[in-house]
Amino acid sequence: MFKKIGIIGAGVMGEVFISRLLMVGINAKNIIATAPDLKRLRNLNKKYKIDVSQNNADAFKNADLIILAVKPQQAEVALGNLPKAKIDQVFLSIMTGVSIKKISNLVNSKKVARVMPNTPARIGSGMSVWTAAGLFKAEKSFIKRILQSLGQELEVSSEDLIDKATAVSGSGPAYVFDFASHLIVAAQELGFNEKQARQLVGQTIIGAGSLLIMSEESASDLRKKVTSKGGTTEAAFKVIDKAKLNKIYSKALKVAYKRARELRGGI
Question: What is the DSSP string of 35-51?
Answer without folding.
Answer: -S-HHHHHHHHHHH--E
